[in-house]
Structure formats: structure tokens, C-alpha cells
UniProtKB/TrEMBL annotation:
Catalytic reaction annotation: an anthocyanidin + UDP-alpha-D-glucose + H(+) = an anthocyanidin 3-O-beta-D-glucoside + UDP
Domain of life of the organism encoding this protein: Eukaryota
GO molecular function, one term: quercetin 3-O-glucosyltransferase activity
Pfam families (UniProt xref): UDPGT
Pathway in which the depicted protein is active: Pigment biosynthesis; anthocyanin biosynthesis
Entry's EC annotation: 2.4.1.-
Similarity comment: family membership: Belongs to the UDP-glycosyltransferase family.
Keywords, ordered alphabetically: Glycosyltransferase, Transferase
Enzyme superclass (EC): transferase
Protein name: Glycosyltransferase
Annotated InterPro entries: UDP_glucos_trans, UDP_glycos_trans_CS
Length: 494
């Protein structure tokens, strides 16, 4: 009996971390990589439970090798929840802002019930920073909380200062005022942040009160006492990170998460796609000259009007450059085009001919960006895609859709000098001009900068690198938190 009690005590001393992302592709991707890193780097000394919506978990099982996680990491498991929300509808386009509000009311009680009942007891929660109720519930129950912000550090920093920007009268943006006007009240960004670089909810008359409240809550929930995880590396975001750490000393930069995991595994990491990945595009790339192909993909959430799609098509074909365009099923809405105006057949059914390939489906993006034939990336500027492009050493043309993408595109072009910012423009002439500028006229200039940044990204996740060290420190913190939590549970039990 004494021996059994000793075994139970030893088992309860093992940290049990619950990781809970916003249930959309980009957030799942980066937080699942972190969950794997904790399972791997913890050397079996950490249990990890990844919490997924039923809807997304079914897709993950269908289209990825999700089950391999449990086989590769003995302490890893998935847990799912169902709060009755129509996840298939709320994870498209700007509907994501509705998802935040709906989850606050519908998912909060489901999460609280799960957190109380789950066994073994959770000793630490790593919650998506965009879901404030995760922190509320965890602290109410008495479980330590660590926030993971899957957005870019520069966007996090803007959100942090948004109340001051509003108080100074620099926001909201009113009507059709000068979009080139500088925003001067965000420290470190005074010289380059414009009205144009801020998301739609910074405009007067926005009908998106949920998102603005979430943004305002960034600082309210960012206590120096609570650790913060960011998916970046110090050489990429050094100046902004220095400012963030002045306010939030326990800020751990562990990225690029996908490269960090691959470095520790010594091989390509598992897929986390919610769509079937079509590998045929890799075969097509094999037949193209090195650095000759522009990869085009606007991500997992962006919705495009038919007229916008046609402008890109005409611009891309008119540039005379090779390109691979991945069009996500269901990503094109009718827009305001006349009924008799039809999209080219190639964009509806896909095509492979000459110097172009249109894939109506989904692609293994890390593998595509890492292919030697790819020389540029026309992207929506989601943070995962930006990091994947940086790691691959591929310069970008940025056409952002919403949220942090507006800021990311400015950061890529103005601060990192890794590409071109095409926000607020959807014109075939501009598309053709920018494609040629990236792929021909300034190709070597952009390529040199991109290759150097890729080198720094990879060094950051190698043993001794900044992200490698930060992950080790994070794991130590988790073990200390969990030790205190287990001790407290023991005292309550006595």
C-alpha cells in the first residue's frame, strides 16, 4: 500500500499542461507545435493535453497524421469539447470575430467543467491570449496560467498601447481621412506605423465591438506576474521584444515554432492541416528552374470576391512569371460582379500548363516554401505564413486581409525589407508590376536579405540559440508552477 501511494505521489508530481488554442487553423498550428515541443523537450517529464473542438479534431484526424503525436510522445493526448457552436461557419473570414464573442458565452462553462473534472488534475494552462475567458476560469479555479499570443509581437505591442492611442485622438480613423497619417503613440513604431497599417476595427463606425473589446483587454490581462509566450525569435523582433519585456519580464520567445520542433526532432514535423494536402504541386515544382516560381496562397481564413480573384489572375498571367496558386475551397464569394461575368475555368477547376499551376485545394506549405524552385511568396501575411517564409528564405509580396496581417505586411516591407506591401490594392497592373519587381528586378536584393534572416531563424532554435534557451526556461517555469500547484492541492486534501 505504501509503495502504491508513493507511485501515485510521483505520478501526481509530473506537471500536466493543458494547451487550449482558438479553434482556427493558424492558432491550432502554432500551439500544437508548442505542445509537441513541451512533450519532446520535457523528456517525458511533462504531460500535455491539447484541447480541440470536436469539429476541428475530426478534420485533424481526417487530413493529418494527428494520431502520431500520441505514439511519439507518451505523455501527450488530445481532449475535445463541443459547445454547440457552428465552427464550420464561424471560422471563415471576418466571422472569426463573432467566434470570439460566442466562445466567451458558450465555451466558458464547458471549459470550466472540463478543467475541474479532467484527470490527472491540470497543474498549468497555456491558453490562447485571444480568449480571455481561459485566464478567467483558470485563475478562478486556482490553476497557473501562461498566455500564448499567436499574433506577431508588433501587433501585440500595438494592442497593448491602443488605449493611449485612442486617448491621444489618433484613433479611431474617421471617414476617408489620410491613410498615410502616422500613428505616433506606439513606442518604437513612431516612424513607420500608419493608419493604413491598422485593422478595420480601428475605424470609426465599425460594427465589430467584440474585437475592439478583445484588443483593449490585451493590457488588462497582461500582468507582469503571468508569463507570455510569443512565436518569434530575438533577432527578428529584438527592438519590440525589448520594450515588451520591460513591461512583461516573463516573455518567452520560442519560435519559429515549426522550425524549432523540426530541429529538435531532426526530421520534418507532423502535419496539422484541417484540409487535405495535395502533394501534386511538389511534383510540378520539381520540373521548374530554381527560384523561378511565385507561390500564391492567401491562407485559411481569407475570403475573396470574384472580381478580386480575376484581378490577381490577370496580373499574375500578365507578369509572364511562373506561379503556383493554391485556392482554398470555399474561399471565393460572389462579390458584386454581374451574373454574366464568369471566372476563368482554370480558377474553378484548377489547371497545370506551361509556366503556371492552379491548385483548387490545399498544399503542404512548409514543403512548398522550402522547395528550391520557389523564389517568392504572394501571401495574406498571417504570422505563421510570414515565419514559414522567413525560415525558407523566401521574400514576400503582402496582401493582408485582417487582424495582425495589416501590421505584418508593413513590418515585412518597411522594417525587415523582405518584400513588398500591396495592401488596399487589387489591380492587375499593380500585381504584375510587383511580381516583376520581386521576381526579376530586385530578386537578388530581396533574396540576400531573406537568406540571411533564414540563417538567424535556424540558429535561434539550435542548441544554445535564443529560442532554444527560452524553451528550456519555460519548461523550468512550468515545473516550478506545477510543483507549487501540486503542493497546494496536497495541503487542501489534508
Amino acid at each position: 500500500m505504501a509503495e502504491a501511494a508513493k507511485i501515485d505521489q510521483q505520478a501526481s508530481a509530473i506537471p500536466h499542461v493543458l494547451v487550449f488554442p482558438l479553434p482556427v487553423q493558424g492558432h491550432i498550428t502554432s500551439m500544437l507545435k508548442l505542445a509537441e515541443l513541451l512533450s519532446l523537450a520535457g523528456g517525458g517529464g511533462i504531460r500535455v493535453t491539447f484541447l480541440n473542438s470536436d469539429y476541428n479534431h475530426k478534420r485533424l484526424l481526417q487530413f493529418s497524421d494527428a494520431e502520431s503525436r500520441s505514439q511519439n510522445y507518451p505523455g501527450f493526448r488530445f481532449e475535445t469539447f463541443d459547445d454547440g457552436l457552428p465552427m464550420d461557419q464561424l471560422t471563415k473570414g471576418e466571422k472569426v470575430s463573432e467566434l470570439l464573442g460566442e466562445m466567451d458565452s458558450k465555451t466558458r462553462p464547458v471549459f470550466k467543467n472540463l478543467l475541474v473534472q479532467i484527470q490527472p488534475p491540470v497543474t498549468c494552462v497555456i491558453g490562447d491570449g485571444s480568449l480571455g475567458f481561459i485566464s478567467d476560469v483558470s485563475l478562478e479555479i486556482g490553476i497557473p496560467i501562461i498566455r500564448f499570443r499567436t499574433i506577431s509581437p508588433c501587433f501585440f505591442w500595438i494592442n497593448f498601447w491602443l488605449p493611449e492611442v485612442i486617448q491621444a485622438g489618433e484613433l479611431p480613423i474617421i471617414g476617408e481621412e489620410d491613410m498615410e497619417r502616422l500613428i505616433t503613440k506606439v513606442p518604437g513604431m513612431e516612424s513607420f506605423l500608419r493608419c493604413r497599417d491598422l485593422p478595420g476595427y480601428c475605424r470609426a463606425g465599425t460594427d465589430d465591438p467584440t474585437m475592439i473589446q478583445v484588443v483593449k483587454a490585451t493590457r488588462e490581462s497582461s500582468s507582469p506576474a503571468y508569463p507570455l509566450i510569443l512565436n518569434t525569435f530575438d533577432d527578428l523582433d529584438g527592438p519590440i521584444l525589448a520594450r515588451i519585456r520591460q513591461r512583461l519580464p516573463k516573455t518567452y520567445t520560442i519560435g519559429p515554432a515549426h522550425e524549432h520542433l523540426q530541429s529538435r526532432l531532426g526530421t520534418a514535423s507532423s502535419s496539422s492541416s484541417l484540409w487535405k494536402e495535395e502533394a501534386s504541386c511538389l511534383t510540378w515544382l520539381d520540373a521548374q528552374p530554381p527560384g523561378s516560381v511565385l507561390y500564391v496562397n492567401f491562407g485559411s481564413i481569407t475570403m475573396m470576391r470574384r472580381d478580386q480573384v480575376i484581378e490577381f489572375w490577370e496580373g499574375l498571367t500578365g507578369s509572364k512569371n511562373r506561379f503556383l496558386w493554391v485556392i482554398r475551397p470555399g474561399s471565393v464569394c460572389s462579390g458584386e460582379m454581374a451574373d454574366d461575368v464568369q471566372m476563368p475555368e482554370e480558377l474553378v477547376e484548377g489547371v497545370e500548363k506551361g509556366n503556371l499551376k492552379v491548385l483548387v485545394g490545399w498544399a503542404p506549405q512548409e514543403a512548398v516554401l522550402g522547395h528550391e524552385a520557389v523564389g517568392g511568396f504572394l501571401t495574406h501575411s498571417g504570422w505563421n505564413s510570414t515565419l514559414e517564409s522567413i525560415v525558407a528564405g523566401v521574400p514576400m509580396i503582402c496582401w493582408p486581409f485582417f487582424a495582425d496581417q495589416q501590421v505584418n505586411s508593413r513590418f515585412v516591407s518597411e522594417v525587415l525589407k523582405l518584400g513588398l506591401d500591396m495592401k488596399d490594392v487589387c489591380d492587375r497592373r499593380v500585381v504584375a508590376r510587383m511580381v516583376n519587381e520581386l521576381m526579376v528586378e530586385r530578386k537578388e536584393e530581396f533574396r540576400r536579405k531573406a537568406v540571411e534572416m533564414a540563417r538567424m531563424a535556424k540558429e535561434s532554435v539550435e542548441e544554445g540559440g535564443s529560442s532554444y534557451r527560452n524553451l528550456e526556461l519555460l519548461i523550468e517555469d512550468i515545473k516550478l508552477m506545477s510543483s507549487s500547484q501540486v503542493q497546494g492541492l496536497g495541503e487542501i486534501g489534508n
